[in-house]
Amino acid sequence: MAGLELLYHSVAPDLSCPQEALLCFLHWKLITHDYRCLGVGDQPGSDERKSEMLPAGWNADKELYTLRYRLKDDSRDLLVKGIMMDGSIIFNVMDPKSQKVADLTLKVADYVNPEHLADFDKVYRNTEELQMEVVQHIVSPFEAARAPARAKEEPKRERNPSPPNPPDHDPLWIPPRHPQGSRQPNWPDPMGPFAVGGEDLDPFGGRRGGMILDPLRSGSRNPSMDPSSGLPGRLPPGAVPPGARFDPFGPPRANRSGPDPDHLPPPNYDDMFM
């Protein structure tokens, strides 16, 4: 609590009641939050100036204390009034521009020892709690009102701004689609010398052949095997992966010429018109 002791000693000869020690504490806390005292009373005087000290005559009225404060940057004024009632002091604080009001009621005996008004080391009680009460109920409400105003003044910045587009970028350009079947899938080659049985040993290792062998996995490419055999047309490229276990729709070499009618006549053939 740097500065409070010097401030207290400067006004200690004028203190005559314990609530004035609380008002001195409140004044010090406002000073630490960049407020400066302008003077006493509700209306400004002709020769006012911002000061860290309590003005002359600040404790002339023992039932009602009135002080005015202003931030160092002149962005806010505060009108502080302390009213005594049944051993407690009620602080009413108002911002004249925004009409925002805050208040705090303190029981004087809980925070001030009236028998040691002249001794700074003994006059205050529960200073941590007192400081928390002043900040929470008097200082913070006006600081919270000030934060949104600062946010509006500062320009908004994007956290992850998108990179600028190149000069020749056309946002309406749509990339061409490749026709289905025009590109061969990237199938693994099953024709390696160690492919046989690999799938049985490592079922999750990829297509490398198993125990069942078919013509397409015999180890040598068979150009006579045509998956499109038996179909009126041909399968599109990539429809059957290289080396896949695939039964053609018809016999191999579906395009070869049919059998000679004179070959293998039916049994007991004796009718030429049959």
Automatic annotation (TrEMBL):
InterPro entries: PI31-like, PI31_Prot_N. It holds the Pfam family PI31_Prot_N. The keyword Cytoplasm does not apply. One of its GO terms (biological process) is proteasome-mediated ubiquitin-dependent protein catabolic process. GO terms for molecular function: endopeptidase inhibitor activity; proteasome binding. One of its GO terms (cellular component) is endoplasmic reticulum. Gene3D superfamilies: 3.40.1000.30. Residues 12-142 form the PI31 proteasome regulator N-terminal domain. Belongs to the proteasome inhibitor PI31 family. This is Proteasome inhibitor PI31 subunit. It comes from Pogona vitticeps.
